[in-house]
Write a structure and sequence with these properties.
Layout: H1 16-26, E1 35-39, H2 45-53, E2 58-63, E3 76-80, H3 86-96, E4 101-106, H4 112-125, E5 127-136, H5 179-191, H6 193-196, E6 210-216, E7 219-224
Helix pairs in contact: 4-5
The structure holds S-adenosylmethionine.
S-adenosylmethionine is lined by residues 12-14, 40-42, 45-46, 63-65, 82-84, 107-109, 114.
Length: 231
């Protein structure tokens, strides 16, 4: 089956670069009866794209705007609501993917506080073990013009390294935790959970809920681990 790498005819804004990475991530799933949830669907064209991409898949969309998909498919279901409404997210999962989603794509608000609510709720409750969660446009967190974005080069965010300081004096790197950049860094903490949760003063070490995190310009892919256990 040829892999679709042009989303423009569907009215989706994903470019070839982005779709090539999706194709690599999704290759083992293409011919399977998967359940995919896309949060933030614009006019809905990307849902038609995913329905063609996964010919045996069930495609579910959620958007705060009403979506009228005239040329729909019986394999597509659309919900109207907010990504941060965890009760709605659970209802969608119970109705469309009671055994969990294989793929979840967040291309909605790109606001850190909202994205983190849906991410952690869905990752821990409604994404299958081994399932893939894509977070698009996380770089908005670096945009001064974005509501919760902020450039890492802001002088007040940089640690001032005094002239003559040695490498061992540097305990922090220029960084920031705003918006979606902050969400990605929170996810890095989860990847490192075993090391983070062991050591003096810790009582309950646990493995990470995340098996893999791939961060690319424009999209981050998180692969869910099996249930974490205690080593
Ligand atoms: C960038 S567009 C999605 C584009 C689409 N994924 C595509 O590839 O064509 C973002 C969408 O997210 C929706 N959105 C923004 N904030 C939202 C929120 N808090 N909850 C649900 N949807 C939201 C907007 O209505 C808009 O349709």
């Amino acid at each position: 089956m040829p892999v679709l790498l042009d989303a423009r005819p569907y009215g989706s804004d994903r470019d070839e670069y982005m779709l090539a990475h999706y194709a690599r991530q999704f290759a083992p799933l293409v011919d399977r009866d998967i359940r995919l949830l896309e949060i933030g669907v614009g006019g809905g064209g990307s849902l038609r794209f995913w329905a063609d991409y996964f010919p045996k898949g069930r495609i579910v969309g959620l958007d705060m705007a009403a979506v009228d998909l005239r040329e729909g498919s019986e394999r597509i279901t659309i919900y109207h609501g907010m990504q941060q409404d965890v009760n709605l997210l659970t209802r969608i999962a119970c109705e469309c993917a009671p055994e969990g989603f294989d793929v979840i794509i967040d291309d909605a608000s790109h606001i850190g506080a909202l994205t983190r609510i849906s991410f952690w709720h869905l990752l821990t409750r409604h994404l299958k073990a081994g399932g893939i969660f894509a977070i698009e446009d996380w770089g908005t967190g670096y945009w001064d013009a974005w509501p919760d974005g902020r450039r890492a080069t802001d002088p007040d965010l940089r640690r001032q390294v005094t002239p003559g300081a040695t490498a061992t004096d540097v305990t922090e790197f220029p960084s920031h935790v705003s918006g979606l950049v902050g969400v990605i860094k929170e996810i890095v903490d989860e990847v490192g959970m075993y090391d983070l949760s062991t050591g003096p003063g810790t009582t309950s070490p646990r493995r990470s809920r995340i098996d893999r995190l791939e961060i690319l310009p424009g999209v981050a892919f998180v692969t869910r681990a099996a249930e974490p256990d205690v080593r």
